[in-house]
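Project standup — Tuesday

K.O.: blocked on the structure for the chain from last sprint. Re-posting the sequence here as requested.
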Amino acid sequence: MQSLSSVALPRIIQGGMGVSVSNWRLAKTVSLLGQLGVVSGTAMDTVMVRRLQDGDPGGLVRRALAAFPFQQWVKPVLDKYFQPDGRHDQPYKRIPMPSRLGDTASQIMYVLGGYVEVFLAKEGHSGLIGVNLLTKLQIPTLGTLYGAMLAGVDYVLMGAGIPREIPEALDKLAAGETASLKIDVTAWTATEAARLQFNPQEIADEAQTLKRPSFLPIIASNSLATLLARKVTGTIQGFVIEGPTAGGHNAPPRGAPVFDERGQPVYGERDVVDLEQIKALGLPFWLAGGTGSPEALERAMTQGAAGIQVGTLFAYSQESGFEADLKRGVLERAARGEVRVFTDPKASPTGFPFKVAEVEGTLSEAEVYQARTRVCDLGYLREPFQTAEGRVGFRCASEPIDQYLAKGGELANTQGRKCLCNALMAAVGQGQVQKNGDHELPLVTSGDDLERMDRFVAQFGTQYSARDVVAYLLGDTVLPEPKNQQLVVGG
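H.V.: unblocked you, prediction finished:
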């Protein structure tokens, strides 16, 4: 694999946000502008099958699946989930939640979901595309990575945890060999750690080699940077250094927890990354969190960074996956300086602080959250735990409380927990209709930059493009027109 130091590095990395907020269309647009476009790798299996059930407008998912190199896996998915005329507001068919660690074949939906999104993002051009995954979401990781690699993904970015085994896993998958990932199991007593195995030959039926993508862990401390640069098997190619103002999951503050008057965790000097120590590691790095301005880009470059990662500005562009009315409403409030972002220490079942935009009619409102009937039917953020029989079980602090307690969970862990899985799907227009007839409502995650977007919206309006974002960040540079490249329009 070519060293990043020997190639031109993107100055802008578009953040891999939410569930399909950073969709293939947004990533492709950014890539065609010479920067690093990134698709969200979270819940891409469910995103794929819900697009199919909504009629697959433009035939995009089916076109991607037709290019999947191992067609024996494709027909059963189309037979089960594709609905040519759409759902007509009927509930989505759900992918069964994993009930055990399973074998490679049980991961095929993750493989297909990762493949489809990256295929569409890379289709018709030679620009760079990355995929962003959450370290905390362990079960889908290897399958999603393999699907993305089959589609030729160029970069992998991972945060929300310590992705120390990913460099070696990428090496193994690229070589067509079995990759393994340690699964964090609460109260695990066995001598050997629980592990998830993924053998590419069970999908491909033959050994083959793939391009090994560059790996950029998303970190928030010098100690983690040093660990990943020097003490893991395999190699990393750089870092994204993310501060606590970034959207989505944030690293918890170091030391004893302290909260401000709104109940948000307080970050201090111990949470500031020493960039001189980072530079001493000899790898390129990008700064993220509160970097959505040309001034921030210039400041990052003077500090020795290769550039910046930007999420919030891209999240509300026309190309992003946010549901259109939701997007427009948030931007109209942002233009008036009326939107606030809350770092919620309880919302995520993972226990990580989670950025929530306070938006009317969403789960950010206490009365809306309290009115929702608890259900866990997607399960991406479930916690593996050891059962009384010594096996691996799964529970979620956001599931029905009686079910959680029956699995040994503690009542205190359920307080304030939100079903991010269903809420983030609803935010991109794929909300479930539950058995009681309730429609799942969205939750909007955004970085603190959302509170400062009035300047940007005043210049570009509420219906701006990702191209406007890139031009703004580069100082209103006249952007080159893509040559011999086609941006495929459609869902």
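K.O.: great, moving the ticket to review. The chain has 18 helices and 14 strands. Residues 483-491 have pLDDT under 50 and may be disordered.
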